[in-house]
Amino acid sequence: MERLVVVLNPNSTRAKRVQSGVLDRLNDSGRTHDTLITKYPDTEANIDTMLEFFRNGDTILTAAGDGTAMQAMNAVLRTNLENTRIGPLGYGNFQDIGREQDPLKLLSTEPIAWNPMTLKVNGDYFRHAPAYATFGLTALAASKFGGQSSRNHMRHTPDKLRLLSSIGQLGIDYFALRRHKLPPFTTNLNNKQQNIATDIFAINSPRAGRIIRLKEDYSASNDFGFHISDLSRIWPNVPFGIQASTGHAPTTPMQELIIRFEEPSTIPLQTEGEFAIPSEVEAISIHKDPTDVLRVLKST
Predict the structure, then answer these.
(1) What's the rounded Cα separation, in Å, for the pair 135 and 116?
(2) Cβ neighbours of 246 (radius 10 Å)
(3) Which residues have CB under 8 Å from 138's CB, separation 6+?
């Protein structure tokens, strides 16, 4: 029997609106549902809880941010659940995966196919990334948004000012972190050693971090978008910033990317805002497995 599951994250930016915006809406419509509340700051611990809770045939609504939606998608893929639908509701900060906030409207849509990226570190599976992954300076900056002080600040910032506030925080973090460089690396695209890059981007959807936008939507294809940047200087990156903010971020379509570091290194990385910093990293690979297809409810 189909079960409706609502996943809640009490730490998400718009968590206080979930009761009236989601749970009350479902109750008033007569839609019975089970709830799962994420309890841990650790991404893998939350995924483990979801692995035990989800089952075949579920319709899963995530009433939180992109990180919680990513965790639910990982749980579904890791257990090979069939006939399962995921509906990401936008109750976080950036809302790159899902922006719709009305659960009844989302439940009335037909699911679309969504093929996430698969990340491996030193050849071992690390995580699925449905929307985007970044490595380097932007990953370090993203880690600041996950802090409690940043979340509290965003909760008390009016919606119309939230993007401006996010950009302001990003600017402060940028000046504090812009000297950070990725260690030397090569890729399967080019054997030339990269020595000055601050960032590697892998993007699978039209939005990443709310600021970077693409015309292409890679989520239903076998490709993803790839870009290397040196963001340590402002003026040389003005064209990239304009392109990214106007929906024309320059990316190269890829089916597989392999990044090899000259020496084992500690690499900051994040997917959908969920930060990690693995050590002794020799290689990171990103690819899309055509059999990893999610059924996602997404309003246009």
Answers:
(1) 17
(2) 10
(3) 199, 201, 209, 231, 270
The size of the chain, in residues, is 300
Residue whose tokens read 């597989």 = 256
Element (H, E) at 239: helix 238-245
Instruction: Tell me the two tokens of residue 127.
Output: 């995580």
Distance between CA 291 and CA 271 in Å, rounded?
21
Averaged pLDDT in 10-residue chunks for the chain of 300 residues: 92 92 97 95 94 96 96 95 94 88 96 97 97 93 64 56 60 72 94 92 88 88 94 83 86 95 97 95 97 91
Q: Are 36 and 8 in contact (CB under 8 A)?
A: yes
How many helices (DSSP H) and strands (DSSP E) are in the chain?
9, 19
Rounded Cα distance, 160 and 151, in Å: 16
CA atoms of 33 and 5, how far apart (whole Å): 6
Tokens representing 12? 């998400």
For CA atoms 103, 110, 85, 289, give the dihedral sign.
Answer: negative
Token pair, residue 292, equals: 């990893």
For 89, the 3-state DSSP assignment is strand
Entry pTM: 0.89
